[in-house]
Write a structure and sequence with these properties.
Blueprint lengths: L7 E5 L3 H13 L5 E5 L2 H9 L7 E4 L8 H10 L8 E6 L4 H9 L3 E6 L4 H14 L1
Parallel strand pairs: 1-2, 1-3, 3-4, 4-5
Length: 133
């Protein structure tokens, strides 16, 4: 079962090469989705609030300059309901157990994966999303 082609994934990571690699991995996993990326969490937040982007899924890095993933999530929760319909999965290089614990406490975060994303991760994510709907 494939995710619909009108499905949209937003990658938020300050490293453009990681975003590019993740796009390739999502494509190789045979996920039919529109994938966009932002290298600045504050820009992504602004575009979400303005309705410029409306992803079904956000893959969010934690450790970023200017606005980190946790700060993004705090502000994300303040958006109007129609602007925060996305599911969020943390995709981070963090090995800090408190980050995983914090992620498990959030109602909006579905899961926590370590970088780099893999085809197996993408397939797990797809199954999780299909089971959510």
């Amino acid at each position: 079962m494939m995710v619909k082609s009108d499905f949209c994934i937003l990658l938020i990571d300050d490293d453009p090469s990681i975003n590019y690699l993740n796009k390739l991995i999502i494509e190789k996993a045979d996920i039919h989705a529109n994938v966009c990326d932002r290298t600045q969490a504050d820009e992504a937040l602004s575009q979400l609030s303005e309705g410029i982007i409306n992803p079904n899924l956000i893959l969010l890095d934690i450790n970023m300059p200017t606005m980190n993933g946790w700060q993004f999530l705090e502000k994300y929760h303040e958006l109007p309901e129609e602007s925060r319909k996305s599911k969020v999965i943390i995709l981070s290089s963090s090995i800090n157990p408190s980050d995983k614990e914090k992620a498990s406490q959030s109602s909006v975060i579905l899961d926590f994966y370590s970088k780099p994303l893999s085809i197996a991760n993408v397939k797990e994510i797809r199954e999780t999303l299909l089971n959510e709907n």
